[in-house]
Specification:
Number of helices: 24
Structural class: alpha/beta
Number of strands: 23
Strand content: 15-25%
Helix content: 25-40%
Distance between the termini: 43 Å
Length: 775
């Protein structure tokens, strides 16, 4: 047996004997705490408890939404005024915030070909496009009756995997899919926009080197989300841009405007109707229902803060007193993203669509009706079922109800024959590629502008006085904004921690204890405390909280083992130097299990750190009570995802007297949203990493603003693939300038070392000794 193998065998045997001994020996707690007798994997129990907690919070969100609403049902005008703030907030969270351009739809056709794509006895079809905002156009078809005045204008929004030609009856499809043709034959002018589909053909980043299986909708969602935009908001604004023009064209004879959508188009119709009072009738098919399981749907439906204020019923209440039609039909079949395959890396988020039960649709519809009960002049609201509620969309019953809401005299035309083509159909793939690239380019232009947007956001922070105390005072509102609107704050008091401990290490120079304490119902904090031996009575030591990274555990920063090449046992090494150290368990472990926690948190206007921050607050509160701890000298030091934690947790937990970010500090917004950088998360498996509208508010320099004037350090290996040296230097230069402006440049530093993604422990250890005043 080689010496190396013998070494690992000895370690394994030692660990096994320790485990056996611990199981046989009585629990020895840290003095002043209760014995920890819980068996099993505490990390697994922590994650499972947070999952239960979040699911309960989602269930309770329905009852809590009322605090955001102040409906005045006494008149239509007063109602509109009372819900205006909700409408404005909805626009923000779906990213429908860009200023639209003046819109004039234009017919498009190849040079030398007929402007008319197809013609039927009662209508003709043209290809059209219209400007929306900078660099972004809507595209699709218009079916225009030949009669002088259309009965009404209808915007019919297809599902993501349907083409306008299918709805116009120009391509073969399932029975009942030609909704636009039926409405055109009934006398309406019908507009059918293209929406981004679920294929992955152009989901490529890293200057063309990273091909992924992300659906196009998810690819756009990721970069847009980081920059305060959303695929939903983009496409709602394409609808609204059409409404801008249609509303301006209304004559003295008030021609109504309606929107009808199926599947993803149903989602867009509901959101557009909620946002835009100019839409007289809203038809939603294959979408409406309870939304508590939105975290199981495709991630491009993830809206930060949605369930905190809105379910489908609350969105419907923004449509009142206008007419609303809900058709309970079969939702589009989506079993997940495209499969990874040769040439297509994985990384897409899981997510499925399932048809809700008819009684669930009816219950949500009924809840919506109760919210606006008593509102004067409310038009008819209707829910209809296609067959048993699982049938095809666009049933005769639904289309008849939709038409009659537009004009009581309207009659639904029987199905007719397809229009005759006058020229070849548009190449759907080319058109989709154009639409995809326009939105992709728009997010990249927002990314380029984001640092200037952040500068404006931070204009009220007082650095001109060069006074650290005044800086702290002026940044309090930014810290509150960071917690409430970026990280997300649970409005719950911390529980009595009831710390439970047991001794798990007994080394020559220190003793280690597992620690569990309560935080919220079902939520615990768990970690391992290392206490140097022979601390003189009455002496209070500094503490270093040593944070693991992705898929890590507390023991990884303590023990020799597979993770040693990352962490180099830095918690144990610091304990040997006389520091008290604490290694917490953070939530980012078990892959999709923890990522699903982010998807459950986001609709509540929360993130993983909404739970992690209170766990750390409870931890430092408890550490501060220990007789060997100096409460004013508790430091944070984290690697990788622990470095991500080092930017967020000390910014909010002010008990941390300093922070060290290792292996993570970056031009973080660029890393998340860039379509060029190979290390970007845009097309990788970390689908939980994105934080809504971070680009407009807090890059890493701005997070460091919230740590200042406390000491702050960055540890960076030249060979660390998480970023580029020049990006790290660029972002850190802003931090260095702030500390210089505050006349405290000695409180910050950046150490480069010639190494990979790892704890280096040279400059950082010196930084800890100096700023924690420990020789």
């Amino acid at each position: 047996m080689s010496r190396a193998l013998l070494f690992w065998f000895s370690l394994g045997l030692s660990a096994a004997l320790t485990s056996i001994s611990a199981a046989a020996d009585p629990v020895v707690p840290l003095p002043g705490t209760a014995p920890l007798t819980t068996e099993g994997d505490l990390t697994d129990q922590l994650v499972a408890g947070v999952d239960r907690f979040l699911l309960k919070q989602i269930d309770q969100s329905v009852g809590r939404r009322a605090r955001h609403w102040h409906r005045d049902l006494s008149s239509r005008d007063k109602y509109e005024t009372s819900v205006a703030p909700n409408r404005q907030h909805l626009a923000k969270i779906i990213g429908a915030v860009d200023k639209r351009l003046p819109t004039v739809p234009e017919t498009t056709a190849p040079a030398g070909q007929s402007p008319v794509l197809a013609e039927a006895e009662s209508y003709e079809v043209r290809t059209v496009r219209w400007p929306v905002f900078r660099g972004v156009y809507g595209e699709g078809l218009v079916l225009e009756p030949k009669r002088q005045q259309p009965l009404a204008d209808c915007i019919v929004v297809p599902d993501a995997d349907q083409t306008p030609e299918l709805l116009a009856g120009l391509r073969q499809g399932p029975a009942g899919s030609d909704i636009a043709r039926r409405l055109a034959e009934s006398g309406c002018r019908v507009w059918v926009p293209v929406i981004i589909n679920r294929d992955d053909t152009w989901s490529i980043s890293g200057m063309g080197t990273q091909s992924s299986n992300l659906p196009h909708r998810e690819f756009i969602y990721r970069g847009a989300f980081e920059l305060g935009r959303h695929i939903i908001g983009y496409e709602v604004q394409k609808i609204e841009a059409l409404v801008d023009w249609l509303d301006a064209q209304r004559t003295t004879r008030h021609r109504k405007i309606g929107v009808f959508g199926y599947g993803e188009g149903g989602l867009l119709a509901l959101y557009a109707g909620a946002l835009d009072p100019r839409l007289d009738i809203v038809g939603v098919s294959g979408y409406f229902g309870p939304r508590n399981n939105v975290w199981q749907e495709p991630i491009y439906r993830n809206v930060f803060g949605l369930l905190d204020e809105f379910g489908d019923a609350e969105l419907a209440s923004l449509i009142a007193p206008r007419a609303l039609l809900v058709e309970a039909s079969r939702v589009p079949a989506v079993d997940g993203p495209p499969k990874p395959r040769k040439g297509r890396n994985g990384g897409a988020a899981p997510g499925k669509l399932e048809t809700p039960a008819l009684d669930a649709v009816a219950a949500e519809f009924g809840r919506a009706a109760k919210l606006v009960h008593g509102l004067p002049d409310r038009n008819a609201w209707t829910v209809v079922a296609s067959a048993d509620g699982n049938g095809s969309p666009g049933s005769d019953k639904a289309l008849t109800a939709f038409l009659q809401a537009l004009d009581a005299q309207a009659k639904l035309a029987p199905p007719g024959s397809s229009a005759s083509l006058k020229r070849p159909l548009p190449v759907a793939a080319d058109r989709m590629h154009r639409q995809f690239e326009e939105l992709n380019a728009h997010t990249q232009s927002l990314l380029a502008d984001s640092q200037y947007v952040r500068n404006d956001f931070w204009a009220d922070a007082d650095r001109k006085s060069r006074d650290p105390a005044k800086w702290q005072q002026s940044t309090r509102r930014y810290r509150q904004y960071f917690y409430d609107d970026v990280i997300g704050r649970f409005e719950l008091p911390l529980m009595d921690p009831k710390p439970r401990t047991r001794k798990v290490y007994d080394e020559p120079t220190w003793t280690g204890y597992e620690v569990v304490m309560d935080v919220f119902p079902d939520v615990i904090a768990y970690g391992i405390l290392l206490v140097p031996k022979n601390i003189p009575a009455g002496q209070k030591r500094p503490v270093v909280v040593c944070q693991h990274g992705l898929e890590g555990r507390p023991k990884d920063v303590i023990e020799h083992g597979p993770a040693e090449h990352f962490y180099h046992c830095f918690a144990a090494t610091l304990a040997e130097r006389g520091f008290v150290t604490y290694a917490p368990q953070n939530l980012y472990i078990f892959k999709d299990r923890f990522r699903s926690l982010q998807l459950k948190s986001n609709p509540l206007k929360k993130t993983l750190f909404s739970t992690i921050v209170p766990q750390h607050q409870q931890t430092v509160n408890w550490l501060s009570t220990l007789p060997m701890v100096d409460a004013k000298r508790i430091a944070f030091y984290g690697l990788s995802y622990g470095g991500k934690s080092a930017m967020r947790i000390p910014a909010l937990v002010e008990n941390y007297c300093l922070s060290i970010c290792s292996g993570d500090f970056n031009e973080w917004v660029e890393k998340n949203a860039s379509n060029r950088m190979r290390a970007s998360y845009l097309a990788k498996g970390e689908y939980e990493i994105f934080e809504f509208d971070l680009g407009s508010t807090f890059n890493y320099a701005e997070m460091a603003n919230l740590i200042a004037p406390r000491p702050f350090m960055v540890e960076r290996g030249h060979r660390d693939g998480v970023g580029l040296d020049e990006w790290v230097s660029f972002e850190y230069a802003k931090v260095r300038l702030l500390y210089t402006d505050l006349r405290i440049p000695g409180r910050t530093t950046l150490e480069y070392f010639d190494g990979p993604h790892t704890i280096n422990g040279i400059g950082t250890f010196a930084f800890l000794h100096r700023h924690l005043n420990w020789p």
